[in-house]
Amino acid sequence: MMPERFNEMPSNPMERDKYIPDTFRILGKRGTRRIDGFRKASGTAVYTRDIILPGMLYAKWLTCPYPNAKIISLDTQRAEELPGVRAILRYDDPEVYGRRIPTLQGGEEDILAGYAYFQGQQVGAVVAADTEEIADEALKLLRVTWEKRPFILEAREALEPGAPLTRPEWRPKSNLMPLFFQPTDTFRFGDVEKGFKEADRIIEFKARRRYHGCSDAEPVSGITRWEGECAELWLHHQHPYEHKWMMNMWFGSPMSKVKINAPYNGAMFGGWNWIDYSMVPQYVSALLAKRTRKPVKWIFDRRDDFTFGSLDAMESEFKVGFKEDGTITAVKIKTYFENLSFEAGLHFVENTKIPNVESQTLVAQVNKGPVHAIRCEQLPPAFAAIHVFNHVAAELEMDPIQLALKNDGAEGEDIVKLEDFKRKHGFPLRDSLRECVEAGKKAIGWDEKWHAPGAHKLPNGKMHGMSFIWDHEWDDNRGAGAAGLMIQQDGSVSIIALRSDVGVNAESTYCQIVAEELGMRPEDVFLRQQDDVHLPLMTPDGSCNLTTNGYVMKKVAKRAKKKLLELATTTVHMIERDVPPAFPDMNPEDLDIKDSIIYVKKDPSIKKTVAEVVKDVKGSFMQKHEYGAIQNTTHEPIYAWAWHRQGRLGKEPGRQRLCRQAHFCEVEVDPETGEVEVTKVVNVNDVGKAMSPETVEGQQYGGTYMGIGRNRSEEYIWDPKTGVLLNGNLVDYKFASMRDVGPIETVIVETSLGLGPYGSVGIGEDVATDTTNLLQGAVYNAIGKWVDDGPITPKKVLEALGKA
Q: pLDDT per residue over 54-78, tens digit each?
């Protein structure tokens, strides 16, 4: 039997979970039923938007019609006189005027500003009324005088000398914005000038990613209710537990007196949860609920949801040096971002052997909505890496797969360094990228179909194109989580934890981990994560949360199993009588559990179900403490809890990201219309260990639709004369549907090279991130011209062909 070394993640973040069984009973098996499946499929699942409380009021915001404006005067009298209006909170109310509140992201945000920095911003006034309709009517009765100010929509323009200030109250001297997670505006690794001198060729090009975003399937909302000094919140948010802390900071409410409800969230993808402003509406509803002594539900409509964008609104200038054999010697990038940034050169260091990288980041505040990670986290570095590899491969007329393999590595060194790291830390000596590449090539028929740019015209008159891109998995494992576990009197198991459910089926996987480690049947383990049990799991805000929470589940299950086997071999002192052990003359190590049955290892015919073992000690029993006291207790007999924390963002010194991903696609480009048809996509992801294969495939499918949609059609459109957002709705903002992408083939690679439990890594975010840039190479392969301004629209294709 394999020794159970490192059953729990050690404090050294470069170590890993070295106890990986040869076989699994449950994890990795297909057909496990989703614990939320019936409720969601039957339409009985309750979302925040569905909740109606007795006497509840509805709060809605005034929105600014201009991209940069300030309120000069506000007359609310007519709105206040409208029957059904219960309260109006104004920007000049003494309780909110000039006040900014700390937020989850560590910054500050206006509670209710008297100025706006983008058209559609919620400012000035909030109406609380008996119905949504009355609130809408009251907003129309507000009389507002605005001071319209100059606005800027483009980053380069905002950074020009003498440019008007885009956010004068926030940054009164400059439109240049401090960087996100970066101490300086220039990231350097190695010496790029030295790298250019060593290069045989140097190319320069530009690429751009237009401002885009997303709207959750369920528009955001929330509820606050006060009962004396106790507050109860219903949240459409991916960080529910942190609202306890916010209520303490805002109102001084003890966290113990704040109850959180986390109903189902309709397909959330980040974004809203990360921007500072996302915490403000709940404060406003809490304030209005205090004043009216009624529950207050704040509501954003669909247009309100289109207030934020993705953090890859960027325009980059590239200079790349490389040798004739494909070895890239230097990459230099200068990038202009709109409103927020994420270092664009990061992936060159994390998963290539490119020795010299320099990336300058300039972030301009423009009069568009706030941006953050939406449906992805690392779009800027993925954008940069994919474009560099695409252009170098094209310049050398080289198979892009060979270029990728040639430059695979980490921190400026080749794959040999990765192999040394694997040996040192006990990883299998497997080449993740090569395995992903070979699987993807076979699935799409790369060797038979790939061709020189513009060389394959199909019988239907369209041009055929192929592309390949690659990256590492987001193996950051950051964050912390806590959970409890209770074995009930009937032998069923309850996981006790609070977490937002955003539809990615992580909760079912947590049950599988507990069942695997505890020895239970999957159907005997359940998690209802909506309840406030004061044990918060890692929030669903990245690829890392499954691995972090996976360790929590593994720990808590092992502790519960230890207690359960001790109970099975120990006399329990009840008030009425002593209950003999279920397995007399046995020690815990003599027993094991499988399929919810406890059995003797040497003679499995001697067995009892978990229910039989725990049922006799239900209710009151005597518990002897270490200090000798005897206590009557009515607690359930088996309870355990666990906590786990991982390093921030996976940037610990010396740590390597070993799992890779690769994506392939075929397109047909109509040279007469410019239309790009995506005929097939193949996703290959090395997730280390696929604990739930169907969930992995769901991320691959969903990520593909998101990425292809952004690559083809997703873009916010503003009127350049007025600064008004023209397509803030689901009719004019085009998401990809099933008819916009051909067959999607998903391939799962399992190398055990991850730092998560069982050698796993997360997969959420990364497919959507990389496939956002998948079509550039395919369109170039089809027509022999670059369209590096995303999204790739028919007009841009025709312009590249000289036909527009």
A: 999 999 999 999 999 999 999 999 9
